[in-house]
Amino acid sequence: MINVKITDYGSKKPNDNYIKYTVSGLSPEAIEYLDKNLEDKHTRCEDNLIITMNFPDKYYPFGSDVAKFRLEDFIAREEIEMMVFLSSFLEDMV
Fold it and tell me: What is the model's pLDDT at position 67?
């Protein structure tokens, strides 16, 4: 089962925000498929895939005032969204 955890996030400068996801629980074939087909910046680290997504301010999910008060909810939602994205992406692997 795919497990997604946000391991880092932040802003480098205006309109240069990022979220780093660590993805575990993937088969070697799934890691290889994602490594070859994901367009977003990513690296392989042992049995994990580390994906870094960049966002302009307008789309950065942790940039709103609401996110500052409910950060745990926003992190959980982002982890679920990435898991769903990767699951659907891997459906094309067959």
Answer: 85
Q: Which of 89, 80, 85 shows the shortest CA–CA distance to 30?
A: 89
Number of CB atoms found within 10 A of residue 21's CB: 24
Q: Is the pLDDT of residue 92 over 90?
A: no
Are 2 and 25 a contacting pair, CB within 8 Å?
yes
Can you tell me the distance from the alpha carbon of 94 to that of 91, in angstroms, rounded to the nearest whole number? 6
Q: What is the pLDDT of residue 21?
A: 98
31: alpha, beta or left? (left if phi > 0; alpha if psi -120 to 50): alpha
Residues 30/23, Cβ–Cβ less than 8 Å: no
pTM confidence score: 0.91
Higher per-residue pLDDT: 64 or 78 = 78
